[in-house]
């Protein structure tokens, strides 16, 4: 069966329907306690680091973690007082994921344009999983 709508068309449609933030806008929101940055990349992509303070929610589990009716629900997503800003490697998966979460009824969700690659290009603060563990343990 031929593909009648390619990934690029799907991404473009999603981008037209979701709120997007630039890297600079996300940097400015990092200290806001009402904002949770969410890394939706695959766990294998985390070895190279992530945005400081990002919550990891792999794309393959996102809908299940967000839905309170799911046995996999994560309470972090129940906080309606937060804005969730999703990112992936280049901004394509996060645009699709943001659109899906909007389709599920979330209104407090956006994505970071350009993804982690753009974050790195613009010198955004990063941490490795090891850095995060040290920070949580109060060792940094």
Note the main attributes of this structure.
140 residues; alpha/beta; two-stranded antiparallel ribbon; 6 helices; five-stranded parallel sheet; single chain
In short:
36% of the residues lie in helices and 16% in strands. The protein is an alpha/beta fold and 140 residues long.
Written description of the protein model:
Helix 1 packs across helix 4. The termini are far apart. Strand 5, helix 4 and strand 6 form a beta-alpha-beta unit. The mean pLDDT is 94. The chain contains six helices and seven strands. Strands 1-6-5-2-4 form a five-stranded parallel β-sheet. A two-stranded antiparallel sheet has the order 3-7. With 140 residues, it is of the alpha/beta class.
The description of the largest β-sheet is: 5 strands, parallel
> How many extended strands?
7
Order of strands across the biggest sheet?
Answer: 1-6-5-2-4
- As residue ranges, the low-confidence spans are none
Overall morphology: globular
How would you summarize the topology of this molecule?
Blueprint: H1 7-17, E1 20-21, H2 23-29, E2 35-39, E3 50-51, E4 55-56, H3 62-66, E5 83-87, H4 92-103, E6 109-112, H5 115-121, E7 126-127, H6 129-136
Parallel strand pairs: 1-6, 2-4, 2-5, 5-6
Antiparallel strand pairs: 3-7
Helix pairs in contact: 1-4
